């Protein structure tokens, strides 16, 4: 328990100095504590904004995967080809063979881009638009989830 | 101990399993549909894999996706929870084949108990009383009539592969048998792909009681004091309690012994529930559920045993750790299922944004729920939002604690069964204890000053 | 637990100084704590956002008094005289005697409006502005809470 | 049974009492300051009265306002909770005088145990071991020196009217006595209006253990297995558990018997706690708290007894209802105090808007809290936001359950002690059990990858 001296006067001079500091600096709040003395000066509050995602992230300590890094949005007119199944991603038909596509290749709709293997079944994933392969988003022989983006294509101008 | 468990489920039961894993130091893998991206089971598991689009058939029932997710994450066991794939013998068999430990009994046992006619036979062979009726399935109308002549009417025709009231017909006289047989058989075929039916004496004024069992691979079987699940609506349980109010001790001992006999004769491993009907001092086997049940916390509260942890120990080849005193009830527990349903509009399912969520706290209160304020209840899955379980020294204190906790339970954004539960707890017959499965059917809900009340409609 | 000396006077002088400082400086809040003395002065708040009361009302069935009917706001330039203590409200000095004031009366600042009795002590509640008595908000011989509005006055034009 | 209880407190303990009232069918009256207009105790009580402005001295310590509120609402009893007026003998006396039942022992007993030197004497008279030291207060420096010559140094000088470390000085040698006596006496005078001090042998490496007691007006006394509250920061308890890890059974029996002796000799009625220090196999009385304590749920979890309900029964003139088996521990329970304090900034108190609030659920988890999402923690009162209590079959399982539940506990908008508790549970010495009250003082908190860790700084 803190020890208390109730006879000391309130530090009004210091308060005035802090008020001045808040006003001049533009900061939101200053708090000072020294022993049993505590001073807090707050600027007029701004309008608060809240988003649930952020809140949970800061709220649940120790949960490693709470902050999902969402796949980057399809900005700049890019088109994502996503995995229709859970499985293992392969860029080539078989080990040692050439990859189906590389970054910079131009592909046409219906062309095979990769294989996702699930339960010994080889699922060929095809381009659903024609265009240029801009980025390969999954690692060869790595696992992919349902709906996970595998490639970014830049669709042809139509 | 197994090292990593894939939880092939969602909602509160997925959380329940993830919690047990974490407490045992076992890693957990959540699987989720795209409708469950913001779900707590996905947030709280050690790893998670998106397995498909919202419809259950493409995600939580999607066997290849689930097996692939287990392989990708290196899980060595799969816990199916309840519902979805929990009693799917084919899924259990596939797990066995690919070397994944299925947290449950063998696929053979699941298949055997899944056929209700066969389960009746297994129970009868083990010396467990079954409702008078046919030996196994009835191949023709004539067999039904022969049984009817023997044991008397009314009878009930049931689907062998069934459950939940589908393919079921009550027959009052022999004249009704032909039409009922045809109807039940057709409905069973349409629902389960198997039109075979069996027949039982139709018992009225009965109570639904059931016995939780746990068995390990060393031949040890534990049976727990019975749960009473008679407060049902259309075969869906709403309130479960343990022990059953007013049940004579010798009946309890009989139920526990009969369940142990059946489980022993099956060479059962893991958790399961043997279900009985009880009327006029006698009980009859109806079916066995070869999985964890929604209402398992009721037994956990009065026994102190963590049933999910014991499931995981059993599949790890460990021995059950159940103290002797867990076999007699410590106090009284009641579970309330808080569903997203509107009691005043024929239990219309609700979905949408949970605006406020503040569960009750304090002594003797347990809440199992995947909700949080800001969660959006998807329209694709079952309506269970939360289970509130209360525990106190006797049934009267449990009821008062239930009233207190239900009253505190704050959920807004949709209608729920919370006010229905309050109405049940105010019902005099429920308070006396020992109501039958007709309890809710015999009553009407009435709205009165913002509260609900049950009014008896038939005598 | 520290025992509190309830007999020490409140540091009203310091409070006044802080109030002045908040008003002049335009900051949102000042808090000073020293030992068992704590003073907090806050500027008038901005427009409030959602109120929890509403949410709970719809959420918690069966709690009878969740919806607190808040005292009506001081609209139309009315001034509320509030109870400074918990106690019993009396409109007259003694049973059978005339009430201190009636609706329509004109009162001057400092004039007694009623008594609130607490622990056998008769607390005379006086008007803090001059004006007309527009409404009596509490019932004679009924209980009143701290801060409960007792009268609406329409202050004189100044 | 009493009919209506005014709850002279706020926060989680006010809720705790309101819950007990509701379960017993007793009406409850909340009192609240204008800072607590949106508080749950005000929302959940049957009635409520605003008693004053935010400062505690004008509201929760405002005796006339509280007595008036009791009179206005027709309450026939006052439950003071802990803190505020709970050990204020004058308040208890006023209640007695105006005919209000004070939920606690008589004002005489409160006053007697409130004087620490007198409490020591009462304990010694009852045959309870007290730390070697002075008989009652020390009138002069010479008395202190005489005691020092007798029992040896180091000594500790303490304020008779004190508590919480105020007016306390540790003295290593006789040369230091004069200055320390003067300092302690002055500080005691300034803080408590009473400069008298007493002296005890200063024990190092000690554990704080305490015994919950309940006594009714028929002379029945129940003592419960001890709680260990050694994890403290500046005399503030942070974690409490029961039973105390590794405590020999004969020590437990000794503690319980000593507490029963003291309580019996006082003619005590109601709930109370007898506090001891424990070192090297021996225990010594330090003080008795004549009220409900923050950590009472730990005992409730391992005994199944509702201590607040028993308090209300006792003041209603009923007999205690405590089953015989409540006197031996059923499993192990741990309580974590979740405070609005920033562990990384010297436990700076926090206030403000609770943005997210989602307490943990599942088996063996109890949460006592007045929080909800959207609640604004006022800066005027103590920093306790929530108590998390976990219960499992043994200490190891309790710790794992604690880790799981703390990890799930979502509070945002301010810093809390949640990460500190996780760090304590990861500490090897804590896991082994039996740490002393220097546990936290001997460690530094370090932030590592978003988590906190404790590092030992001294050996």
TrEMBL record, chains A, C:
UniProt xrefs under InterPro entries: AcCoA_biotinCC (IPR001249), Biotin_BS (IPR001882), Biotin_Carboxyl_Carrier/Decarb (IPR050709), Biotin_lipoyl (IPR000089), Single_hybrid_motif (IPR011053)
Compositional bias of kind Polar residues: 48-61
CDD domains: biotinyl_domain
Species this chain originates from: uncultured Rubrobacteraceae bacterium
Protein name listed in UniProt: Biotin carboxyl carrier protein of acetyl-CoA carboxylase
Listed Gene3D superfamilies: 2.40.50.100
Annotated metabolic or biological route of this protein: Lipid metabolism; fatty acid biosynthesis
Annotated stretches, region: Disordered: 46-79
Boundaries of every Lipoyl-binding domain copy: 67-154
């Amino acid at each position: 328990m803190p020890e208390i001296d109730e006879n000391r006067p309130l530090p009004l001079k210091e308060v005035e100095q802090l008020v001045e500091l808040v006003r001049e600096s533009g900061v939101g709040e200053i708090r000072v504590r020294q022993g049993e003395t505590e001073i807090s000066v707050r600027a007029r509050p701004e309008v608060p904004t809240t988003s649930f995602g952020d809140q949970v992230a800061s709220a649940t300590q120790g949960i490693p995967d709470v902050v999902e890094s969402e796949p980057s949005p399809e900005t700049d007119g890019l088109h994502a080809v996503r995995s229709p199944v859970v499985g293992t991603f392969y860029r080539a038909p078989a080990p040692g063979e050439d990859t189906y596509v590389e970054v910079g290749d131009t592909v046409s709709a219906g062309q095979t881009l990769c294989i996702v293997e699930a339960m010994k079944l080889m699922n060929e994933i095809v381009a659903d638009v024609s265009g240029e392969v801009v980025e390969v988003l999954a690692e060869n022989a790595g696992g992919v989830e349902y709906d996970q983006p595998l490639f970014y294509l830049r669709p042809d101008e139509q | 101990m197994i090292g990593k468990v894939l939880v092939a489920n969602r909602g509160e039961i997925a959380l329940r399993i993830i919690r047990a894993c974490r407490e045992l130091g076992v890693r957990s893998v959540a699987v989720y549909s795209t409708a469950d991206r913001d779900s707590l089971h996905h947030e709280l598991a050690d790893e998670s894999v998106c397995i498909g689009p919202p419809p259950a058939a493409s995600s939580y029932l999607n066997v290849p996706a689930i097996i692939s997710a287990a392989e990708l994450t290196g899980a060595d066991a799969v816990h199916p929870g309840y519902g979805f794939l929990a009693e799917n013998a084919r899924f259990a068999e596939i797990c066995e084949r690919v070397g994944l430990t299925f947290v449950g009994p063998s696929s053979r046992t699941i298949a055997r108990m899944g056929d209700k006619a066969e389960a009746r036979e297994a129970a009868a062979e083990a010396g467990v009383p079954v409702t008078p009726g046919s030996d196994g399935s009835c191949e023709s109308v004539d067999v039904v009539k022969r049984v009817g002549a023997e044991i008397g009417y009314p009878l009930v025709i049931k689907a062998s592969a069934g459950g939940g009231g589908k393919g079921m017909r009550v027959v009052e006289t022999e004249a009704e048998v032909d039409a009922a047989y045809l109807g039940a058989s057709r409905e069973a075929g349409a629902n389960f792909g198997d039109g075979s039916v069996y027949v039982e004496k139709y018992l009225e004024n009965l109570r639904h009681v059931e016995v939780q069992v746990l068995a390990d691979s060393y031949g040890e079987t534990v049976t727990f004091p019975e749960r009473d699940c008679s407060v049902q609506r259309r075969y869906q349980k709403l309130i479960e309690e343990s022990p059953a109010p007013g049940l004579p001790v010798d009946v309890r001992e009989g139920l526990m012994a009969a369940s142990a006999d059946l489980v022993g004769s099956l060479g059962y491993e893991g958790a399961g529930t043997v279900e009985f009907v009880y009327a006029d001092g006698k009980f009859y086997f109806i079916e066995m559920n070869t999985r964890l049940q929604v209402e398992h916390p009721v037994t956990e509260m009065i026994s102190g045993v963590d049933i999910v942890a014991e499931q995981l120990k059993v599949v790890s080849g460990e021995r059950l750790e159940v103290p002797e005193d867990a076999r007699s009830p410590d106090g009284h527990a009641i579970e309330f299922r808080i569903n997203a349903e509107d009691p005043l509009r024929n239990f219309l399912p609700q979905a949408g944004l949970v605006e406020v969520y503040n569960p009750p706290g304090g002594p003797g209160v347990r809440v199992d729920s995947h909700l949080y304020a800001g969660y959006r209840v998807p329209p694709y899955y079952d309506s269970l939002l939360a289970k509130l379980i209360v525990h106190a020294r006797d049934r009267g204190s449990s009821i008062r604690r239930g009233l207190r906790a239900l009253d505190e339970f704050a959920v807004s954004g949709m209608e729920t069964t919370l006010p229905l539960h309050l109405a049940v707890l105010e019902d005099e017959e429920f308070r006396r204890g020992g109501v039958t499965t007709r309890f809710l059917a015999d009553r009407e809900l009435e709205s009165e000053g913002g509260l609900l009340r049950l009014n008896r409609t038939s005598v």
